[in-house]
Design brief:
heterodimer, A: 262 residues, alpha/beta, TIM Barrel, nine-stranded parallel β-sheet, globular, B: 384 residues, 2 domains, four-stranded antiparallel β-sheet, 14 strands
Chain lengths: 262, 384
């Protein structure tokens, strides 16, 4: 693909206005009203929305997203089913899919990339596909105009960061801590550190996720980066049965906190 | 010619690779470098050889089976990995990795286990070298292998129960990887089979090649050459790759035997889970299926990438046997030769027994990868 896509443009626009980006994560197929949740989350001020396609063995995810995956799969969710549902939505903000590589591999990389594009999905995050393995997927994604978002971790050496930022599209996803997804009581110092390290080597938007679970933590880490990804906190609301409005009200809290601070 | 080395990217043909979260990529690279250095370091090799000889009891013998051979109409030889300290081939790999972990300055060993043999071996090495040890084991396996759970605790290891998914080996690996993502700075993941991200499949194979090297020499002495068939059970595939390594350059047929309920090569299609691309039992959407086997050690829907490569190139073939055939074979070896096998190698024997007509008159080397003490409680229930 040539030039920035919808995800990167949306995030750059937020940054140019002096604001910080908010990317909530919604598990696809979790509950009958999950698409209504996506719509409500968009209306509550998300800049981009991540849609999780559940996988049977999510090694990067903690208990909350594991539980959401299991429930969604038990309810019969499938990748094509989730993408079909997304294709019928028009929420006004770009969507990105987060899933594990085997889901794309099984469908066929070209077909999966084309399915994302056909469903109106602009980007894709595959947390078990590191830089060295990303070639065939990134090529298929580029050809379909899908932005491949790569992750950088606290353990990533400095000399590796530029290559990750170079190959990433949309934004660079800074992993906030050593560990799996989930809400933590305190923001890890590694969250601010990874944002700073990434900002030092790239002009691409830098968002931090994993361990960013409260509006206060989102404000704190955004001092060092361009915004946050909020997964488990949002999904926990879904698991608790808060419904689209209940989930949206949490997202609105994050939005308000970021807007008040920046 | 030995087994071929993987590419620098860790590929065996189209299989293998390093499909892990970015957090773990630097750790895998460090292990790769440290292993390459250590393997070329005579002091490391001498220390490992010393432990294999004086602590684990190597070399393990090859045993002729006169009674059973006559009953089956073939010449059966057993490579006696069951006689190693801790009761299986797992100790070969664990001693190597534990020494490597110590050399890398790590203080904690992390492991997954199915039947408990790898967990016991890791707990043993940790006790020996004064390291912390944490072993993940699926809830189903904790229940059916309670003796090994007790052993691990006795050895000072912490055993954590994996409650997610099928609550067997696959889920124990998921939990161990999640732990490693959080503790990678001071923990070393001591993987138990020829699977996972590069360099594990290659490194674990290298540590298990001692089985094949010894067996080749022993067969030369006993048979004046190589056997017609070399067979072994395959879950992840470390005992099989170990013995295959000694015969891959010969005329011997190489046969891996999978459980019918976990036949990754037999029934799987290429997929990516737990760090590498390999044959995998999965549904049409890429969700990994739950294996179902009487043997906790083989209850795994995937297989090491090099086995997928050996299957794809035709150098080895992979067969499967049912739980009922395994129960028969377990009793058969006990009764005829006074050797109670673990349920895992009983799979290989079940295949030999079933194929006795096509194997008639030939010689068969079977890797008896472990002893059956851990399985007697489960078999007592099944047989009563």
């Amino acid at each position: 693909m040539n030039g920035p896509g919808l995800v990167e443009n949306a995030l750059r626009e937020r940054r140019e206005r002096g604001g910080k980006a908010l990317v909530p994560y919604v598990t696809g197929g979790l509950g009958d009203d999950w698409t209504a949740t996506v719509e409500a989350v968009a209306a509550a001020g998300a800049d981009v929305i991540e849609i999780g396609i559940p996988f049977s063995d999510p090694v990067m995810d903690g208990p909350t997203i594991q539980e959401a995956n299991d429930r969604s799969l038990r309810a019969g969710a499938t990748p094509p089913g989730i993408l079909d549902a997304l294709g019928g939505l028009d929420v006004g903000v770009p969507l990105v899919v987060m899933t594990y590589y085997n889901i794309a591999f099984r469908m066929g990389l070209k077909r999966f990339a084309a399915s994302l594009a056909a469903a109106g999905v602009s980007g894709c995050i595959l947390p078990d596909l590191p830089l060295e393995e990303t070639g065939p997927w990134a090529q298929a994604a580029d050809e379909s105009g899908v932005e491949t978002i790569l992750l950088a971790a606290p353990t990533t050496p400095d000399d590796r960061l530029p290559a990750i930022c170079e190959r990433s599209r949309g934004f660079v996803y800074g992993v906030g801590l050593l560990g799996v997804t989930g809400v933590r009581a305190e923001l890890a110092s590694s969250a601010c550190r990874i944002a700073e390290r990434l900002k030092a080597v790239t002009d691409r938007p830098v968002l931090v996720g994993v361990g960013v679970g409260t509006p206060g933590q989102a404000v704190e880490v955004s001092r060092h980066g361009d915004g946050v990804v909020v997964g488990s906190a949002v999904v926990q609301r879904m698991l608790d049965g808060a419904g689209p409005e209940g989930v949206a009200s949490l997202v609105a809290d994050f939005r308000r906190a970021l807007d008040d601070a920046y | 010619m030995a087994l071929s080395d993987p590419t620098p990217e860790g590929r065996f043909g189209e299989f293998g690779g390093r499909f892990v979260p970015e957090t773990l990529v630097p750790a895998c690279r460090l292990i790769e470098e440290a292993f390459s250095e250590a393997w070329l370091d005579p002091a490391f090799r001498a220390e490992l050889d010393g432990l294999l000889t004086n602590y684990a009891g190597r070399p393990s013998p090859v045993t002729e089976c006169p009674t059973l051979s006559e009953e089956l109409g073939l010449r059966l030889l057993l490579k006696r990995e069951d006689l190693n300290h801790t009761g299986s081939h797992k100790i070969n790999n664990v001693l190597g990795q534990a020494l490597l972990a110590r050399r890398m300055g790590k203080s904690r060993l992390l492991a997954e286990t199915g039947a408990g043999q790898h967990g016991v071996a890791t707990a043993t090495a940790a006790a020996l070298l004064g390291m912390e040890c944490c072993v993940y084991m699926g809830e189903v396996d904790v229940a059916r292998q309670e003796l090994n759970v007790f052993r691990m605790r006795l050895l000072g290891a912490e055993v954590r129960t994996a409650m997610s998914g099928s609550r067997t080996l696959k889920d124990a690996i998921n939990e161990a990887m999640r732990d490693w993502v959080a503790t990678v700075e001071d923990s070393y993941y001591c993987l138990g089979s020829v699977m996972g991200p590069h360099p594990y499949p290659f490194m674990v194979r290298t540590f298990q090649e001692v089985i094949g090297t010894e067996a080749r020499r022993q067969c030369e002495e006993l048979l004046g050459g190589v056997p017609d068939v070399v067979c072994a059970s395959v879950g992840g595939g470390s005992n099989a790759i170990g013995i295959f390594s000694g015969f891959v350059d010969s005329d011997a047929q190489l046969v891996g035997v999978e459980p019918a309920g976990g036949a990754a090569v037999g029934r799987g299609v290429p997929g990516v889970v737990h760090g590498s691309a390999s044959y995998l039992m999965q549904d049409e959407f890429g969700q990994v299926l739950e294996a179902e086997s009487i043997s906790a050690g083989l209850d795994y829907p995937g297989v090491g990438p090099e086995h997928s490569y050996l299957a794809a190139t035709g150098r080895a073939r992979y067969e499967s046997v049912t739980d009922a055939e395994v129960v028969e074979a377990f009793q058969l070896l006990s009764r005829t030769e006074g050797i109670i096998p673990a349920l895992e190698p009983a799979h290989a024997l079940a295949w030999v027994s079933r194929e006795r007509e096509s194997l008639a008159g030939g010689s068969v080397l079977l890797n008896l990868s472990g002893r059956g003490d851990k399985d007697v409680a489960q078999m007592m229930e099944i047989l009563s």
